[in-house]
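Hi! If you just cloned this repository, the fastest way to understand the data is to look at a raw example. We've pasted two of them here, unedited. The first protein comes first, obviously.
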Amino acid sequence: MDSKSLEPSLYTVKAVFILDNDGNRLLSKYYDPELYPSMKDQRNFEKNIFNKTHKADNEIAFLEGMTIVYKSSIDLFLYVVGSCQENELMLMSVLNCLFDCLNQILRKNVERRCFLENMEGAFLIVDEIIDGGVILESDAQQVLQKVNYRVDESSLSEQSVAQVLQSAKEQIKWSILK
């Protein structure tokens, strides 16, 4: 390795992506254009990582000279990628912040369907945590405050009432059809 690659840098994150439990991309941001320049290269990299990690209980992997920290929740896999000499704890703090923020905006239901319904919030969160590969914030509460995300309790109760009514309609319909 040359000495240039070992110099300290603020650019610590090479990529962030979220895959579903089939390895399909739901969200991705690559911060180093030279790392995987084409969409095909990115998808191959993601597929390799997914194949290596989707059955493992670890939190860290090394692949293609990259340090990868990851976490899974129900049917989502969250990945943060850094260079081989990157501090795993820094990458893990980014991953934990991302997960905690998603957990908050998805109302503790971090799964594919809810994620897709709140995709714009996920992109805002990633942009507040990382800018161009530089970690800006790793405190979930600060990130949520910056994106100005608030859970509206009235909409939450209205939604649950609507769900109860829909469920009652379904039960009545099925009891009549029997």
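Ok, and the second one:
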Amino acid sequence: MKRSVLTRYRVMAFATAVMLLVLCTCMVFKYGFDRGADLTFVVSQAHGVLFMIYLVFAFDLSSKAKWSFGKMLWVMLSGTIPLAAFFVERQVRAEVEPLVTGGPATVRA
């Protein structure tokens, strides 16, 4: 497996998790203090796009790592739970990194 598969997943997991935290903060301001409805809309749209990209990269990683359906589903759903993506990404990195470094060496000419 290429390192780029893991790197893409990690970047999108971090971006999705950060945007979800920003979205939660915006929702508190929107519904708790009646402020920032426009910002909440923009942040929710950005998070939605990033989450769709995250799902594609998580599926790509899960298919290359040959995970079970349950594990793949858990990794994909972690992008919807605030703070969960940070912890799941760390576990995924620890599990997948040996597959990346332990793979067969390629010879470049």
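That's it. A detail worth noticing about the second one: Helices lie at 3-33, 37-65, 69-77, 84-101.
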